[in-house]
Automatic annotation (TrEMBL):
<feature type="DNA-binding region" description="H-T-H motif">
    <location>
        <begin position="35"/>
        <end position="54"/>
    </location>
</feature>
<dbReference type="InterPro" id="IPR001647">
    <property type="entry name" value="HTH_TetR"/>
</dbReference>
<dbReference type="InterPro" id="IPR050109">
    <property type="entry name" value="HTH-type_TetR-like_transc_reg"/>
</dbReference>
<protein>
    <submittedName>
        <fullName>TetR family transcriptional regulator</fullName>
    </submittedName>
</protein>
<feature type="domain" description="HTH tetR-type">
    <location>
        <begin position="12"/>
        <end position="72"/>
    </location>
</feature>
<keyword id="KW-0804">Transcription</keyword>
<dbReference type="Pfam" id="PF17932">
    <property type="entry name" value="TetR_C_24"/>
</dbReference>
<dbReference type="Pfam" id="PF00440">
    <property type="entry name" value="TetR_N"/>
</dbReference>
<keyword id="KW-0238">DNA-binding</keyword>
<keyword id="KW-0805">Transcription regulation</keyword>
<dbReference type="InterPro" id="IPR036271">
    <property type="entry name" value="Tet_transcr_reg_TetR-rel_C_sf"/>
</dbReference>
<dbReference type="InterPro" id="IPR041490">
    <property type="entry name" value="KstR2_TetR_C"/>
</dbReference>
<keyword id="KW-0678">Repressor</keyword>
<dbReference type="InterPro" id="IPR009057">
    <property type="entry name" value="Homeodomain-like_sf"/>
</dbReference>
Length: 209
């Protein structure tokens, strides 16, 4: 079927089909190896429909991630603004982050593997939105430190960046065929993170002479 012969798809559906097709192709073939023609054919839309929604393949990739990041940020805002102790809310926040990652594993992995290829205004927009999530997370850690729930000897910025950086790197070593599911891995990382953040600083044991 040629592009001219394809039936017209409603605009909202066309965008969803383009995103779904691109996510699948980026995951299977890699972002660089995937062409816009392959995306159009897989989505069964016209090239005009693709460029109506996305000016480039780079914008398409960035849009997929920014929408998921916006979801994560909105969920964190809700958790952070809720009642209850800061340590309980931080537990909910990190658990929810891993739950969201489990629900959207494929597109988030695609982004993690391809984000170094994005530059210019698209990269700047992502950095700005990630900083918003980071600041919300850090504010919650600082609140817990002021309340005495978290160790005060490590700056909240170090705690935040260490944890979020480790999350970004999961795609480099996690294998779905391994002994743990993504959800089980998330539970273990949540436990390790919270155990490290709670309580007072540990005093190192010096050797006896």
């Amino acid at each position: 079927m040629t592009e001219q012969d394809r039936p017209r798809v409603p605009r909202g559906q066309a965008r969803d089909r383009i995103v779904a097709a691109a996510t699948d192709l980026f995951a299977r073939l890699g972002y660089e190896a995937t062409t816009t023609r392959q995306i159009v054919e897989a989505a069964q839309v016209t090239k005009g429909a693709l460029y109506h929604w996305f000016s480039s393949k780079e914008e398409l990739l960035t849009s997929i991630y920014r929408e998921l990041l916006a979801e994560q940020t909105a969920r964190l805002e809700t958790i952070a603004a809720a009642d209850g102790p800061a340590d309980v809310r931080l537990h909910r926040a990190v658990s929810d982050l891993f739950a969201h990652m489990d629900e959207h594993a494929e597109p988030l992995t695609v982004w993690a593997r391809s984000m170094h290829l994005v530059a210019g205004e698209h990269a700047a927009a992502v950095r700005a939105e990630r900083r918003r999530y980071q600041h919300l997370f850090q504010d919650l850690v600082e609140e817990g430190q002021k309340a005495g729930a978290f160790r005060p000897d490590v700056p909240a910025s170090v705690i935040t960046n260490t944890f979020l950086s480790s999350v970004v790197q999961i795609h480099r070593w996690f294998r779905s065929q391994g002994p743990l599911t993504r959800r089980e891995l998330g539970e273990q990382m949540v436990s390790l993170f919270l155990d490290g953040v709670r309580g007072t600083a540990l005093t190192p044991q010096l050797p006896e002479y």
